[in-house]
Amino acid sequence: MPPLSLKRAILPLALFCSVLSSCQLPEEGISVTVRRAESAGRGSLFAGAGALNVPVRASAINDVARMLAGMEAYGGQSAFAAVRDSSAWPYHQQQMNALWRQHTLGRGQKVHAWAGQEIADLQRYRAMFYPFSGPDFLFAQELFPSAETYILCGLEPAEPLPDLRTLTPGEVAVGLNGLRNSLTSIMDAGYFVTKDMRNDLQSTRFRGTLPILLAFLARTGATVDSVDIVQLDGTGTPVLTGVTGGSAPGLMIRFHSGLGGMKRLFYFRQDLSNGSTRLGGAFLTFVAKQGYPPALVKSASYLMHDSGFSNIRHYLTHSTAGLVQDPSGVPYRELINAGLTVDLYGNYQGTLGIFGQQQPDLMAAYSSGRHRVQPVDFGFGYLFYPSTTSIMVARRR
Question: Rounded CA gap, 43 and 210, in Å?
């Protein structure tokens, strides 16, 4: 049981952190259609809040996001005063500031500048698709800052945030530490170490992808308006649902970025192997409905080099406007066989030793003169050193 002062300070969370579920789409120029399940009540990914039936305040969701991100509350007023005044908070804030500064100066600004110059045509699409992403909104936003709809997916669950009224200061500290550990690899090397991320998050009370997504949104300057639980029906239409216990099938986070209009981030817990993802199935139909958006593939464990992932591989090569990827995505030969034009960046010298999927044809392509080849000054994906990194940008002829 937390001290009385901590209970009083955190108690407002139960009043504020419920989900904004009165979503009517399309709106503000966004073409995503979402419907509400007839039986769905007000859902909540904030434990303890759903049953209170109180007015929703987006400011509370942003307070949560900024707290997780190690940022001060807007106007200095926070429902988490006790957390921010705890002994764990100054260290969390210091470390998160350092991680963000390291990423921004070391890779983030360079990625953003490269994308604005090299994939400006793909950035004009209103949506982007990032399979095998996990909760990596960071690179999705840096490469496609103008997108209005972001579609991410992975095997990691989307679980409710805990009822902070029940957490001790020690549990808060452990939770923040686990979140920070999960973010360290992507801000340092540029990708999540999936096994470590799962261990870091599942061993604390801040489980699943939602804490990471909220932290990234806050750090990239977004203002979160709502968090809804969604699942796809048979037609590939997102359906707002209530909480049924355990993890959610998917999330829809509505947010504003800077002075721009409404944006949406979808995260689905989706197995992309052929047994769970088929061409014409609900998930890929939903993606296609967003205008066959360009796709990003990074640090995808070379799964699409296996025949068991041929459906998602086929979709990316035949049903997207373009593809930005590292060598762990669609094999180079499949891009060529699909008749795509390919621009190469960096200098591919083979993959990491822990993977066996070497691509000698890709290595030869860098020196053959067949493709446009340009240098890059940042690492990307598993090949996180600029001297050995490889980026492929594939487009339709």
Answer: 15
Compute and round to an integer the Cα radius of gyration of the chain: 21
C-alpha 240/C-alpha 268 separation (Å) is 13
- Mean pLDDT over all residues of the chain? 82
| Element at 344 (helix H, strand E) | strand 341-346
Count of structural domains, the chain: 1
Closest CA to 70 of 152, 151, 176, 147: 176
Per residue in 308-341, pLDDT (tens digit) is 999 999 999 999 999 999 999 999 999 999 999 9
- Domain limits for position 151: 1-66+125-270
186, 136 contact by CB (below 8 A)? yes
pTM score, whole prediction: 0.87
Task: Let me know if residue 383 belongs to a domain.
Answer: no
In a domain, 214, yes or no: yes
**Residue 80 located in a structural domain:** no
Of 137, 134, 127, 3, nearest to 69 by C-alpha is 137
Contact at 8 Å (CB) between 378 and 142? no
* Other CB atoms within 10 A of residue 34 CB: 17
By DSSP bridging, strand 222-232 and strand 149-154 are unpaired
Residue 113 placed within a domain: no
For tokens 């859902």, name the residue.
43
Residue 35's beta-bridge partner residues?
Answer: 239
Going from the C-alpha of 110 to that of each of 9, 219, 300, the distances in angstroms are 41, 17, 22
